[in-house]
Amino acid sequence: MELMWRTSHMSGSNAHYVEELYEQYLSDPQSVPDEWRQYFDSLPGYDGGPSRDVPLAPIRDQFYHLARDRRSLAPVASGTAENEETNRKQVRVLQLINAYRFRGHQKANIDPLGLRIAETVPDLELSFHQLSDADMDTEFQTGSLFIGKDSAPLKEIIQALEQTYCRSIGCEFMHIVNTEEKRWLEQRFESVRSRPDYSAEVRKHVLERLTAAEGLENYLASRYPGTKRFGLEGGESFIPMVDELIQRSGNYGVREVVIGMAHRGRLNLLVNILGKSPSELIDEFDGKKMIEHGSGDVKYHQGFSSNVMTPGGEVHLALAFNPSHLEIVMPVVEGSVRARQDRRDDSEGDQVLPLVVHGDAAVAGQGVVMETFQMSQLRGYKTGGTVHIVINNQVGFTTSRQDDARSTEYCTDIAKMVQSPIFHVNGDDPDAVLHATQVAIDYRQQFKKDVVIDLICYRRRGHNEADEPSGTQPLMYQKIKSHDSSRTIYARRLVEEGVLDEDEVKGLIDGYREDLDNGNHVANALVQEPNSNLFVDWTPYLGHRWTGESDTSFDLKRMQELATKMCDIPDDVDTQRQVAKVYEDRRKMVAGSLGINWGFAETLAYATLIDQGHPVRLTGQDTGRGTFSHRHAVVHNQKDGSIWTPLCHLKPNQPDFTIYDSFLSEEGAMAFEYGYATTTPNALIAWEAQFGDFANGAQVVIDQFISSGETKWGRLCGLTLLLPHGYEGQGPEHSSARLERFLQLCAEENMQVCVPTTPAQIFHLLRRQVIRGLRKPLIILSPKSLLRHKDATSSLEDLSDGRFQMVIPDQGKLEAEQVKRVIFCSGKVYYDLASWRAENERSDTAIIRIEQLYPFPEESLLAAIESYTNLERVVWCQEEPKNQGAWYQSQHHMRKVADQVNPGLGGELGFAGRAESAAPAAGYMAVHSEQQRSLVDKAFNG
Ligand code: AMP
């Protein structure tokens, strides 16, 4: 082949020869010499045999352009009336060709059950184009149609179009505006009429994988009848599809594939693709406990990792753990993939592939799908294109497709918003499934965009095996009852075509069953001794016990150097007036003439972490500047709009500092960062809400992943959430980050909830999150007005020497014996309390800040108050209404500590806060101010 290629280089007369040969191959692959056919087959643009050569897409494109140009030069008849009529018809024929490309999918045979109500598509009728049967034998130019001929009789053109667009694959791609992509797709389908000639070897392999898919379900059905497993029966083609995706992408140089999928078919994928041991699965069916710690999860939520071998080398597979909230795993997978790509410096997404599997009802119904598509080409989120598979069983639990499940014909229409091509493919035609799969992965690798395969199938046993589907879908299930399985249909076809005989078919079934009986692995590409360099080593982060203490100090001199660097903006960056003032102030902070404020302390935390080798990734709406204009980590040049990010210029070869203003999403955006953080243990990954309350748009991420992922799945996560919180009269939607919800989710030291009140505290808190080995989510209720509070400043020494204080003891100069009252509080209300005390000269009241509400620091709190031996009253003061904030979740800890200092109090704890309220905050400034005054007063006097 090497020799052949050298002699057939695309120049001079060789080019013409190859072009001719290639055209011949396009119209009839059998008509070219064997050697050439094999070569053309091996081009990734054409669906060849199992031995796929190195991708040579550019060469294929060159062929394609040559072929197209030659056609465009073909003469058009002119002159006579007859010729003009011919020309008019020629135009109509070209329109007809385009009509098939636009709407052929509506006529395609994509539903294995034949239940799809196929509308008549007028554009595909001859009469619509003012053509008739009388024109069938007339020869027309084929224009851009890829059938390997410049002209052909109309009947032949129509036959090619029908075969390409109206058989088992319904292609939707004409919504794409990029001509190159469209032409590429036309070529891929038209040149083989959507049905490449696969070799017997390839087809036997497909049958073997189908047999595995069916065999596993049959095995489980007979062993555990009626037990829920969300079986794949009806959609078995999914297994050969994923097998091909992995093998082909491995051949492209992909080294990791991250898969997200819901329940249906998950066990099948685990065993037949990822190589989970069948005996382990059986143990789970038998109810044996599989994990040592935590609550565990049902078997069809479990993730898995393994390595498989492909023609291009070993590939690491990671199936993400997922909750029953179906589509939410999609952005988690994207985050995980992006993290792996960043780790590999794979900015194009060539080495890590996201594969997301949807259900038809969920993909059309759930909003996070839209959010994730929206992020697919954004700077901070793109992953070089995702391959989406819809296991489309044409019903959502008991909700029928028509009328109730969606408003448009296809469940995949959402993908058109990012101009993804969509291939609807009949699950009972595995050859077509294979072709659609190959085009999908090739498209992804070529154009780095999302692509969708809509595998149209059915669920033979209803929503799950404990369910009776005929009660709600009677007609569908009558049909299914008498419908042969995809494997049966395919095996029959292969026997009829002489590819193999009945005995071989039976041999495949028996062989698979035998493997299962013997507990053998049945994923035939599984690597038994995986190369662990392909994934992150988490062992340094495992097994750490919770401790609040951590040495987060940092060398003062180096910090000064870093701080100076961070204020260094090149002369040619024309800085906007207010931003220039921020940096001017920061320079004064470095010099020591101004106290360090929140924004500078926070950015210094990032700088010191980077200096110590930890990457930092920060995202959120308006995060570069900060919603409240405190950060200004990105400086925008007023002259040309370019940006300067000081944290990216600290030292040569420093770890990445990435900061992105996110798109306006909470659910998708936070889930993405969860995925990123669970894949990147050595970095600080933080997501910032615009206002803290908006995080409730991502409640599912908080409930299902952040708070419970470790106990359910053993997956550690060091994600940090920055949630602006504070009662400042801004109304019900901009005051509360819903502290009470986070505290309610806290148990088993699952996460940290902190409310820092000084710049030094945020500095040490952010550093603590990365410097120590423990990886736990960190929820920070971050400030708003406190960002500029004159008393909320720290010194460089506070930063360099200190550490995070879970409790800040009283800062006044009180005589301990004189203290009768202690006020506990968290957050900015401390400053209101301190100023009230100063104004009223109260020396009998201590104010203690609890800066970490969970895990609750009882010991530190005790240390802060144990010298107050004459204590008479303990009060908790909060800005939030009584039914919100920390009151109900944290009071038992405070009572317990107070009781240790003075058991005579009987554990009594006073409450000074707003009255119970349905809304988080008052909408009127006057009401807010009166409430605030009253709750501070009550803390001292109530
Ligand atoms: P993955 O690349 O996601 O398949 O992960 C490879 C291996 O790393 C897994 O099998 C786990 O043992 C481990 N691992 C991955 N992510 C985590 C995590 N977030 N917490 C703990 N261990 C992990």
From TrEMBL:
Summary of the function given for this chain in its UniProt record: E1 component of the 2-oxoglutarate dehydrogenase (OGDH) complex which catalyzes the decarboxylation of 2-oxoglutarate, the first step in the conversion of 2-oxoglutarate to succinyl-CoA and CO(2).
EC number(s) from the headed UniProt entry: 1.2.4.2
Keyword set, alphabetical order: Oxidoreductase, Thiamine pyrophosphate
Native source organism of the sequence: Kushneria phyllosphaerae
Cellular component, GO, one term: cytosol
Tagged with keyword Oxidoreductase: yes
Record domain Transketolase-like pyrimidine-binding: where: 596-789
SUPFAM superfamilies: Thiamin diphosphate-binding fold (THDP-binding)
Name by which UniProt lists this protein: 2-oxoglutarate dehydrogenase E1 component
Cofactor(s) annotated in UniProt: thiamine diphosphate
Family designation: Belongs to the alpha-ketoglutarate dehydrogenase family.
